[in-house]
Task: structure prediction
Amino acid sequence: MAIHTQESLSGFIASDPQLTQTSKGDARFYARIGKEHFRREEDGSFTQTETTYHHMVMFGRSAEHAHARFAKGDNFIAEGYTRDVNYERDGQNVEGEEFVAKKLGHDTARTRYEVDRSPRRPAAERDAAGFETPQRPAPAVQSASLSL
Result:
């Protein structure tokens, strides 16, 4: 069986993420994202070139989760597709493209975090609040002593 693949995109969240609703009432996550670019030099080093900025959207329950977990400045990796958009703003026709993320996660190479591997409760047992950050025990206080 062939491996199903989609486009991927890595970058950073450049604006405060917004959570709105579509005309059908579905959740819509929106963020302006930045993509850093680098040029490989003849000596093997890399030179950073101009950062480009783009639009990223996500829909449905995943959009709600993304809005709760992502903030301006976060590094991410996303899977999805690019689509052309055409809309009117202030009486002007605007054409461009946006990345539609189906899956979105923090970039593990650039983000420190802890993973909660506790089993998820069945959907019927979950409350409307969704994910709750696990409580961490307070670090043990250690006294340093020096003896000669």
